[in-house]
Amino acid sequence: MTQKLCFAIGLTTLICLTLSAYLAYSHDAFYPHHREDLRKEEARLTVVFITAGFVVLLGAIFYMVLRNEKRESQRTHESEQDRLAGAANEAAHVGRATLLEGGTAEATIHAALAAYAKRLEFVWNPASVQVVGNALRCQIGGDVIVVRIFHQADQYKIEVKASRDEVTAGAVLEVVRDD
């Protein structure tokens, strides 16, 4: 369950309890013996214990629901991050291999994006993007991928970052090339 759904359930429960209090009060108008029961000392203590037990039980249920929601959200976040990290790492390795073979920045970026798409079994058309410079940001499926190539003297660095929703992962590899 999402946090919004938990909030909606809690709000609905609170409204139902409020309406139940009204119904209990009107029930007392028809059955005045309840009022007399609360005037007795031993009945008053019983009612307090029952009410306290109900409130504690309701609080425990809400706590467990929210705790399980947090765990499930964390598991989903971790699995999504692992998926993105694996695909970004593979794309960076393919881009590194292309750079080592003497490929241009454009060929390296295209190779890295193709490897990313292949890893996640997405259909990607290389002609759909045009590389200008040493970096490219594009979307494959629901993932946003940024591929950058840094060049200084004979040393290259390829950086692949992938993100989806609020989850981000990346890989950076260095390449020394003899041009």
Protein model, in words:
There is one protein chain. The mean pLDDT is 80. The chain is an alpha+beta fold and 179 residues long. The protein is 61% helix and 20% strand. The chain has helices spanning 3-30, 33-39, 41-100, 105-119, and strands at residues 135-140, 143-152, 155-164, 167-176. It is rod-shaped. Strands 1-2-3-4 form a 4-stranded antiparallel beta sheet, covered by helices on one side. Helix 3 crosses helix 4 (105-119). The two termini are 56 Å apart.
What are the defining features of this structure?
179 residues; alpha+beta; 20% strand
Strand order of the largest sheet: 1-2-3-4
Structural class: alpha+beta
Number of helices: 4
Q: What order do the helices and strands follow?
A: HHHHEEEE
Give the helix proportion (percent range).
55-70%
Low-pLDDT ranges: none
What's the short story on this structure?
With 179 residues, the protein is an alpha+beta fold. It is built from 4 helices and 4 strands. Strands 1-2-3-4 form a 4-stranded antiparallel β-sheet, covered by helices on one side.
Annotate the secondary structure layout.
Elements: H1 3-30, H2 33-39, H3 41-100, H4 105-119, E1 135-140, E2 143-152, E3 155-164, E4 167-176
Antiparallel strand pairs: 1-2, 2-3, 3-4
